[in-house]
Amino acid sequence: MICQPYSKLIAIKRWADRGLYDVVSENFERLTNEDASVMLRILDHIHVVDRIFQHHLQGLSHRFQAARSEKLPELHALASSATAVDDWYASYLDSLAESDFEQPVDFVFTSGKPARMRRGEIILHVCLHGIYHRGNAGAVLQLRGITPSRDAITDFLESAM
Question: What is the largest CA-CA distance in the chain?
Fold first, then answer.
C-alpha cells in the first residue's frame, strides 16, 4: 500500500465536506423543519463516525454509544467540529509511514462487538462512509430545489486546476 491515495481521499473528503457545509449553511432557512432535522442528523452521523474512528486510530476510548450524538448539535458547531476533525485526519496521514497503513487496530464497535481493521481500511471506511451520506444530504437539498455542492473526485481535481 502507498499512502498517496489515502491522502488524496482525505483531501477530497475535506473539500467535499466544506462544500456541503457551505451550501447547507447558506440555505438552511430554506429547508422545512423536517428537512432541517434530517439534514442535521445526516451531518451529525457522518461526523460522529469520523470521530469514533479518529479515537480508534489514536487508541483512545470515546463516549459514543451509537453512531450519532445523544443531543443533536447546532449547524454552526457541527460544521466547526467537522472541519477540525477533517483537518486532524489530514495531519494524521502526514504523520504515518507507508507501513503504518497495514497496521491492525483493535477496537470495539458501538454495538459492543470487538473488531479489527487496518489503519488504511479505517481511512477508506471514513472516506466512503462520508461519500454515501453526503449523497443523502444532497438528495435532501435537491428535493427543495437547492443545488448541492460538487462532490465527485473529478470535481475536486477540476477545482484544483
Answer: 48
> In Å, what is the CA distance from 142 to each residue of 8, 12, 62, 136, 154?
27, 22, 34, 10, 20
pTM: 0.94
Place of cell 470515546: 62
Residue for grid cell 481521499: 9
Whether the CB-CB separation of 151 and 138 falls below 8 Å is answered with yes
* Domain ranges within the chain, ordered by starting residue: 4-159
Q: Flag whether pLDDT at 1 surpasses 80.
A: no
Helix (H) or strand (E) segment spanning residue 131: helix 119-143
pLDDT confidence band for 161 (50 / 70 / 90): confident
Question: Are residues 120 and 10 in contact, defined by beta-carbon separation less than 8 angstroms?
Answer: no
CATH superfamily for 4-159 is dinb family like domain (1.20.120.450)
Burial of 137 from C-beta contacts in 10 A (0-12 / 13-18 / 19+): buried
DSSP states of 68-108: S-SSPPPHHHHHHHHHHHHHHHHHHHHH--GGGGG-EEEEE
